[in-house]
Amino acid sequence: RFNWVTGVQTCALPISLGLQKVIFTGKISKYSHMKKLIILGCLLFSQFSFAQEYSAREIERPKLVVGIVVDQMRQEYFYRFHDRYVEGGLKRLMHDGFMMQNGHYNYIPTYTGPGHASVYTGTTPATHGIIGNNWYIRAMDDDIYCAEDSTVSAVGGSESKGKISPRNLLTTTITDELRFATGKRSKVVGVAIKDRGAALPAGHLGDAYWFDGGTGNFMTSDYYYEELPAWVKSFNERKLAAKYLDQTWETLFPIETYIQGASDDNEFESPFKGKARPTFPYDLKKLQKDNGGLGMISSTPYGNTFTVDMAMAAIQGEELGQRGETDFLAVSFSTPDYIGHRFGPQAIEVEDNYLRLDRDLAKFFDYLDKEIGKGQYLVFLTADHGVADVVNYMKSERVTAGSLDTKALTTGLDNFIKEKYGEGDWVSNFSNQQIFLNRELIAEKGLSLAKVQTEIADYLLTFDGIKETYTGETMRNQEFTKGLKHLLQMGYNHKSSGDVMVVMEPAWLANAGKGTTHGTGFTYDTNVPIVFYGWGVKPGSSSRYATITDIAPTLSMMLKTRLPNGATGQPILEIVDAK
After folding, report:
1. Closest CA to 532 of 76, 96, 89, 33
2. Which of 198, 233, 234, 457 could form an S-S bond across to 192 if both were Cys, CB 3.0 to 4.6 Å?
3. Whole-model pTM?
């Protein structure tokens, strides 16, 4: 409406069914040309405003996404140590977030490299290609490390620790897709003590920083930067690793109150070098010399604290979540895995570590509340795998368990093959519970690869502790939809995996001694947390079966991005469709 007294033009814009109308009044006069220009300008402005309003309503995103992967965390740890968690840490996620209580890994093997890759790609090793932490490459006749890249060099740390990038990852990640969705304006930063825990979640387009035990610093490679950003240099100058190790690790509470597992002094745990028994207290200043120097922080709860320090420095240094774009911080807590391997899930050391991690998370969430704003950031927490109980501990409790002697197995297998087919180096490699055969020799002898695979698979079933065996031919030509063979198939990559896959009995480990490990498809290794908290998440829980490959698709729906290009998981409807 044009006011001839004030010279002001106004527009009334009723919007119905997405249509716009401009209503104006006034007599046609010598000013009609001016009126038309004013009205046209008003209409264009209204369309621009409408487009902005529509975009803001439909493409709303949180300021910051924080992905947390706890290395070696069972779902049960949420409940087992719950009474002594503080309100602001893991309890905050449990009570104010949405938890899938029956979340699982949906492939074998359950290791750190494949775990991080699967969480962030939304698919399994069969597709993303990270089939282990290390795996055998036939063409090289050698192993390759999951985050290894011989074309890059160290930046800010030891050269031997710098040959790291995500190039072995064959698919995009949710972090990549967020960057693509915003024209790369979003920032992605991965932080972990383990290099693979930083590089794989950060994807192909993000930045990654990991800990170098030789220098006590966080470092990167020239895949990312030619030199460390100023904020990382400033962080390293604080020398926090040395400060944290200049103390004694004692239990957070009186040791007699730790009643959730075995006694402190037992025969199931592996002591640090220089200490006769695996018992509290741990004089870290004294022990670090014989236990990796500054790298020993990885095996103490202070490794978690150190990781939180670095995560907060990244938020401040990169202004994550504070620039008008949605950023992504991928944090992996590597320390629980080091402690868990050495002591086992029944240990007081593991319980104390989780009580301390809980308090580190509470501190971290309080920081996010202050810097980003409560309700303005989205968190998910999961784990890269669970953990098996210590074999001898299970035996002491009269639970069936055992140790597979892989040396005896390989010796017996070698004799079996030579007796059947003649002399030769028939087995090229045995790793990750997979046997790689010398295919060139098999072809040279005119033998059927499928037949040799089957005969070896049948022979291996004669060993105590081996539950099932499957051949590569079977994995390639049959489709399995349930059971351990389905999990094996989801971890089987046609180009990279072995010729015969071995599945041990429940509670059996290879070459078991003190301490423990993981890698199987049984629930103690597969059942891990899947919990979302914060922006767009309504509190609740579900006992429905879900998989860790559902995490990335859920984020894609929430962030309005493409699915990672190899994703096979499905969005968690209880979260994305909650009203």
Report:
1. 96
2. 198
3. 0.90
Burial of 21 by CB count in 10 Å (0-12 exposed, 13-18 middle, 19+ buried)? exposed
DSSP state string for 45-103 = HHHHHHHHHHHHHHS---SEEEEEEETT--TTHHHHTGGGS-TTTHHHHHHHSEEEEEE
Pairing of strands 282-283, 8-9: unpaired
User: What is the rounded CA–CA span in Å between residue 553 and residue 573?
Assistant: 10
Residue that is written with structure tokens 């000013």 in the block: 31
Helices (H) and strands (E) in the chain, counts: 22, 24
What pLDDT does residue 33 have?
52
Q: Which amino acid is at 236?
A: N
pLDDT at position 160: 94
Q: Which two tokens stand for residue 97?
A: 């977030």
pLDDT value of residue 119 = 98
515, 450 Cβ separation under 8 angstroms: no
Residues with Cβ within 8 Å of 299's Cβ and at least 6 positions away in sequence, in order, are: 272, 291, 292, 335, 338, 339, 342
> Which two structure tokens, joined as six digits, stand for 353?
């570590």
Q: Which two tokens mark 235?
A: 């962080």
Residue 183 CA to its chain's centroid (Å): 25
10 Å CB burial of residue 35 (0-12, 13-18, 19+) is: middle
Residues serving a catalytic function are 112
Does residue 110 contact residue 385 with C-beta atoms inside 8 Å? Answer: yes
Question: 208, 199 in Cβ contact below 8 A?
Answer: yes
d(CA 444, CA 54): 67
Q: Tell which residue, 210, 149, 105, 153, has the closest CA to residue 520.
A: 105
| 3 state SS of 181 | helix
Paired with 6 in beta bridges are: none
Query: Which amino acid, one-letter code, is at 495?
Result: K
Pairing of strands 64-70, 327-333: parallel
pLDDT along the chain (579 residues), means of 10: 42 37 38 49 48 51 98 98 97 98 98 98 98 96 97 97 98 98 98 98 98 98 98 98 98 97 96 97 97 98 98 98 98 98 98 98 98 98 98 97 96 96 95 96 96 98 97 96 97 97 98 97 98 98 98 98 98 92
Size (the chain), residues: 579
C-alpha to C-alpha distance for 168 and 266, rounded to whole angstroms: 41
Structure-token match 């597992």, residue found: 261
Both tokens of residue 512?
Answer: 């078991």
